[in-house]
Design brief:
Blueprint (H helix, E strand, L loop, with lengths): L1 E9 L3 E10 L2 E11 L5 E2 L2 E2 L2 H19 L4 E6 L5 E10 L8 H22 L8 E13 L2 E3 L9 E12 H13 L3 E7 H9 L9 E6 L4 E7 L2 E8 L3 H12 L3 H11 L4 E5 L5 E5 H7 L1 H19 L5 E5 L8 H9 L6 E3 L21 H12 L4 E6 L2 E6 L6 H7 L15 E5 L2 E5 L8 E4 L2 E2 L11 E5 L11 H5 L5 E5 L2 E5 L2 E4 L2 E2 L11 E5 L4 H7 L12 E5 L2 E5 L6 E3 L2 E2 L11 E4 L7 H8 L4 E8 L2 E8 L1 E5 L2 E2 L11 E6 L25 E5 L2 E2 L11 E6 L1
Parallel strand pairs: 1-6, 6-11, 12-17, 17-18, 19-25, 21-30, 26-35, 31-40, 36-43
Antiparallel strand pairs: 1-2, 2-3, 4-5, 7-10, 8-9, 8-10, 12-13, 13-14, 15-16, 19-20, 21-22, 23-24, 23-25, 26-27, 28-29, 28-30, 31-32, 33-34, 33-35, 36-37, 38-39, 38-40, 41-42, 41-43
Length: 710
């Protein structure tokens, strides 16, 4: 079975159309036609006049249709100033599916390309002025279970992966190309990039282990591709090519551009040419004279190509292949070899006869100008890159055809950031709760609404060519609508036992100092105060036992001859069977007991007089925390010294004598720490805070003391 392929190489100076026929593993050139632009409608590979370029394309199309019938679709390639390359990989679990077919592998490759497209889109979020199309890709390697493999077809394993390098052009380059084709009555069947097309047909995979550069020198641009380690390693482009040489001839010999172009072509085939300048003078120019006249421009072109190759490759490659009409520039091979410091035979011009997959016939044109046009047709067949058109918010969008494209892909291709289409959250409210500010968020905004062909759609719904998508921003959220109960949650009740009787105490809620319920609505800057029973005193007041705050009798003692009245004695109160004070905190489940028969202790006297019984000093001794203490007062009754736990009776006469405070010293620790000196051997060493010390050194709070024997 044969298959015909129509391709166009739309260059800066000419449009080359050709028709290839695929026969089994080879291709045969059936026909070709070359038409020059009537005016300079293209510059550096970019279409500047869509109408003029379309007219040239239509002439090529009509000429070929006379012999081969109607031509509706075409394979094309693009070259541009702002090439972007992305290297990425994707993996797929294959242990649960049948043997991998060619279609499975192609889908895996295209998934990697789309991943690269996403990465480039994310990088360009801030640069909204430039959008990119993928115009080609090359496979770097296949892997099966993390092992590199030559082909994935019919392979079995757990994980298959592919790594690719994808190339992107600004959308303006692709859109102008599509517009020109449409005007000429053609539909773009597949799009690729000129260096991809050339390298695919000239350097097969078996040769890509060599570090080789392929340079396609056209009229406006010189496209570069590099192979290494079995793959296409990098792409690049310089905006200098054959036109610079033509313009130099035009300026030096006073020729218009078409005459200079004709002179350049004749010089590549003969040693002298006859020209007539714009003043009407005829002269014969030798090859040597012409080369001398444009020597600087030839050097400039060679230097530009050399610089880009070194930038992409970091060093000179092993060899350089030149294709394209501009590769016939006089002495370009020798000068490029010299600048790359390569032997002269390592830089060579390659023609269409060097394409391995192309059958050699009498119709096959020789020379380098047809390598890229033929490569476009073959590359488009072997590595097709298709696009579909959809409409997003009444804007036409073309995107890479993954065969499973979704609405999300369309939004990405249209430069729409879905995250920014979500409704904004409602304005938050700030409420003070017991003096602490609490932020209450508003409601969330709604997601964007999406319609596909006038029907409601989801972001992951599949799309097809010609679909229409409409996306609208979601609605913004509202300020918070919240009640006291929703803010505070469940407010627990406090249940306390008072002398065996269970008392349940409610919590009082005040909003802006006005008593409120749990269903009270809150607004921004409201002040909420929650009042609960916190202390023993609060409990007695709540229970209506204020008289217990006063005590049941006067309790008088004499201290140093002066009467001291004790009232509101905390010792009359117990909390969970422990001595309590009126200001002690209480919590749910506590038991409070009031007893009027218990006498106060010396401690109560000291608390009443705001005196301390002892001096305390916290220290660390041999990494053990100790508290040293000394008496601060001496309390006696009838000449007997009392402790702070001793009970006081009404009318007791007490004597309280303050003891002057003397500093604690190192040797005081032996009253509180156990040191077995009898078993100690050797000399002892003492340290205070890491420094040597003596037994009579004064101590300060939190000193670290060490004693050891050695």
């Amino acid at each position: 079975m044969t298959e015909k392929i129509f391709s166009l190489d739309i260059g800066t100076r000419t449009v080359i159309g050709l028709i290839l026929e695929k026969k089994e593993a080879n291709y045969q050139l059936l026909d070709f036609y070359v038409e020059e632009h009537q005016e300079r409608a293209m510059l550096d590979g970019q279409i500047h006049d869509v109408v003029a370029v379309a007219e040239t394309i239509e002439k090529v199309k009509l000429h070929l249709e006379n012999s081969h019938g109607p031509l509706k679709s075409v394979c094309v390639a693009a070259a541009g100033r702002a090439l972007k390359t992305k290297r990425t990989d994707v993996s797929k679990e294959i242990d649960q599916q049948p043997l991998m077919s060619k279609e499975d592998i192609l889908f895996l490759e295209l998934s990697a390309v789309q991943k690269a497209q996403y990465a480039l889109a994310n990088e360009a979020i801030e640069d909204t002025g430039t959008e990119y199309y993928c115009v080609g890709y090359s496979v770097i390697r296949y892997q099966l279970d993390e092992q590199t493999i030559g082909s994935l077809i019919d392979q079995q394993g757990k994980t298959a992966s592919v790594e690719i390098i994808a190339t992107f052009l600004p959308k303006v380059v692709v859109e102008s190309l599509i517009s020109s084709l449409t005007r000429a009555g053609l539909e773009m069947q597949a799009l690729t990039l000129e260096p991809i097309a050339a390298i695919d047909v000239l350097i097969p995979a078996s040769m890509r282990k060599l570090n080789v550069a392929l340079v396609d020198i056209g009229a406006g641009t010189s496209d570069i591709a590099l192979t290494d380690d079995g793959t296409v390693a990098a792409y690049g482009m310089v905006p200098q090519a054959g036109d610079e040489i033509t313009e130099a001839l035009s300026e030096h010999f006073l020729l218009d551009f078409p005459q200079a172009e004709q002179m350049k072509r004749e010089l590549s085939e003969q040693q002298e040419v006859t020209i007539t300048d714009i003043l009407g003078f005829e002269q014969t120019i030798t090859y040597e004279e012409a080369v001398t006249a444009i020597s600087e421009e030839i050097d400039a072109l060679a230097e530009a190509i050399q610089a880009e190759i070194l930038t992409l490759n970091n060093c000179a490659p092993k060899a350089v292949m030149l294709v394209g009409g501009g590769s016939l520039t006089p002495e370009i091979t020798s000068r490029l070899a010299s600048k790359l410091k390569l032997p002269a035979n390592r830089v060579a011009i390659r023609g269409s006869e060097a394409i391995p997959a192309l059958a050699k016939t009498d119709r096959l044109p020789s020379g380098p100008a047809f390598v890229t046009p033929i490569g476009i047709a073959i590359a488009a067949k072997q590595n097709p890159v298709h696009y579909i058109s959809v409409t997003v918010n009444e804007r036409a969008v073309r995107l890479f055809d993954m065969k499973q494209l979704t609405a999300a892909d369309c939004l990405l291709a249209a430069g729409i950031n879905v995250d920014k289409l979500y409704g904004l959250p409602g304005m938050a409210a700030i409420v003070s709760v017991n003096g602490k500010e609490v932020t209450i968020p508003g409601s969330y905004g709604t997601p964007p609404s999406l319609w596909l062909n006038d029907g409601s759609a989801q972001i992951d719904d599949p799309i097809k060519h010609g679909d229409k998508l409409v996306v609208e921003k979601g609605t913004d959220g509202a300020p918070p609508d919240i009640t006291v109960g929703e803010l505070l949650g469940e407010i627990p009740r406090t249940c306390i036992s008072l002398n065996g009787t269970e008392i349940e105490m409610e919590t009082k809620i005040l909003v802006n100092d006005i008593e409120a319920g749990l269903d009270t609505k809150l607004a921004d800057r409201d002040t909420v105060r929650v009042e609960t029973v916190k202390t023993v005193r609060d409990l007695l007041v709540y229970a209506g036992r204020e008289e217990w705050l006063e005590g049941t009798e006067d309790f008088a003692v004499f201290v140093n001859g002066n009467q001291l009245l004790l009232d509101n004695i905390p010792a009359y109160l117990l909390k969970n069977n422990q001595q309590a004070k009126l200001e002690d905190k209480i919590k749910n489940g506590d038991s409070i007991t009031y007893t009027s028969s218990q006498n106060p202790t010396v401690k109560h006297i000291m608390d009443k007089m705001q005196l301390k019984m002892k001096y305390y000093l916290p220290i660390t001794f041999n990494q053990e925390r100790l508290v040293l203490e000394k008496p601060a007062v001496k309390v006696t009754r009838n000449s007997r010294e009392l402790t702070e736990e001793d009970t006081i009776n009404p009318g007791d006469h007490l004597s309280i004598e303050k003891i002057p405070h003397s500093p604690f010293i190192f040797q005081d620790i032996f009253r509180f720490a156990t040191v077995n000196l009898a078993e100690a051997t050797g000399n002892f060493h003492i340290y205070k805070n890491g420094e040597p010390a003596a037994f009579f050194d004064e101590l300060a709070p939190h000193d670290e003391l060490i004693l050891y024997f050695q």
